[in-house]
Amino acid sequence: MAPIDANDETADENDDDDRRGALPDEGGTATPGRAPAPTGRDEGPAATPGVTGARRPGAPDSPETAESSSKEAASREAAESSSSKEAARSAAPAEPGAPGARMPRWLPRALVLALALYACFQLGNWAFHQLIGLLVNILLAFFLALAIEPAVGRMAARGMRRGLATFIVFFGVLIVGVGFVVLLGSMLAGQIVDMVENFPKYLDSLINWANQHFHTELSRVEVQDSVLRSGWLQKYVQNSAAGVLDVSATLLGGLFKLLTIFLFAFYFAADGPRLRRALCSVLPPAKQTEVLRAWEIAVDKTGGYLYSRGLMALISGVAHFVLFEILGIPYAPALAVWVGLVSQFIPTIGTYLAGALPMLIAFTVDPWYALWVLVFVVVYQQFENYMLQPKLTSKTVDIHPAVAFGSVIAGTALLGAVGALIAIPAVATLQAFLGAYVKRYDVTDDPRVHGHRRYGEAVVARLQKALHHKKEQAEKGQGKQGRG
Questions:
Q1: Average pLDDT of the segment spanning 336-355
Q2: DSSP string across 131-195
Q3: Is 46 left (phi over 0), alpha (psi -120 to 50) or beta?
Q4: CA atoms in the 13 A half-sphere facing the CB of 228
Q5: Distance, CA of 115 to CA of 57 (rounded, Å)
Q6: Does pTM surpass 0.70?
Q7: Which residues contact 361 (CB under 8 A, 6 or more apart)?
Q8: What is the rounded average pLDDT for all residues in the chain?
Q9: CA angle in degrees (0–180, nearest 5) for 323-339-168
């Protein structure tokens, strides 16, 4: 009988220990390295080194051993399936509202990101509304710089520095503006003084006219006392005194805006080449050519717009000067210049502001003259809107009159008076720039293109009817010949 190797017995004992550690415990789960609890059954004699009952290597398994091995394998499979189910249950997301449900990890970050985006949007919206006045002033200054660019460019081409050339142009514009304002201010002050001094005469003539036509017995003293003792006059004086500060603040704010516009326009015009280089340095060569071409178109269209406005101001000034000289209204040249400039360069309400001052001065001469001035202003405005302005604007700015009118309305709705002032040159620039990318074809020679669609159809129908009538007559003639 071969001797039993001690190493083989030790290996068998280790295998038995592994099987015991893999068996499930009372809870049905396997605990590695832990022996199962005794169940009270006779497990049989334990394998002990040196005992003849121990299993030998290579010996056939007994029925009891095979049954034990199958039970161990079944318990091992049950333990593995139980552990896999628990792992799957732990990996699966818990239903919302369940006791063990957890918040997804991405949800807090998403909430923080959404709140940050909302805060940035609100901050940007607030900043835009706070800076919209400055942005409008910069836009107006840019168009003003484009308008004076041709004059500055000619002076710079003759060897003068652009800064000095820009200063000379702005200084000339400032001198003309200040002189015009001083002239009108002195004229207006003198007319107001004359009107106040002659107010009793005007009141007497008005009272006499009312007494004659309405058979009343009014007197100037009674009218003056009733007016001076009225409550509305006292309230008006109090409100006017309280509104002096508001008027002063408005004037100071207007002067500050005007200074801001002129300052930005000066920088844009003086540093025009540097600004173009800085803009083109961040663009590829193909885009640089397009930007420079758009800049040149903007300069041409803005200059053309100012030329058309200046021409209309000249025509308006001459027409009103003739009227003022015929009526004998004082300060006719200054009033004519006032009407021409204000009516053309202050959109929407410029016509009414321009006509108010001549009417006031004409009223000091004769109240009927004020009525004549009002009628002439209204009639001339209609002539300018429907006949003069469309022709001049279409030639200098090269846009359709309907497009010019619609652009002014859109600019007024977006930016108010500033939008109405810059709408036409902006639309003209955009139209000229986009026109280079639109492919045009030859128009077919069709009468309908020229608006003769109905006439052409009538001619064709007449011809078809005549041919059909001739065919019928020919058929009737052939029928008569066949009968004969």
A1: 80
A2: HHHHHHHHHHHHHHHHHHHHHHHHHHHTT--HHHHHHHHHHHHHHHHHHHHHHHHHHHHHHHHHH
A3: beta
A4: 6
A5: 73
A6: no
A7: 191, 329, 330, 331, 335
A8: 75
A9: 130
What confidence category does residue 100 fall into, taking pLDDT thresholds of 50, 70 and 90?
A: low
Q: For residues 305 and 314, what is the distance between their CA atoms, to the nearest angstrom?
A: 14
Q: Given CA atoms 416, 417, 420, 422 in this order, what sign does their dihedral have?
A: negative
Which residues face 24 on adjacent strands?
30
- Tokens standing for 453? 């669609």
Task: Please give the Cα distance from 401 to 440 (Å, whole number).
Answer: 22
Distances (CA, A) of 35 to 45, 69, 73, 473: 16, 16, 16, 126
Backbone dihedral region of 107: left (phi > 0), alpha (psi from -120 to 50 degrees) or beta? alpha
Task: Report residue 198 as tokens.
Answer: 């002659």
Structure tokens at 450: 């020229």
Tell whether the model's pLDDT for residue 58 goes beyond 60.
Answer: no
Instruction: Find tokens 């400055």 and name the residue.
Output: 134
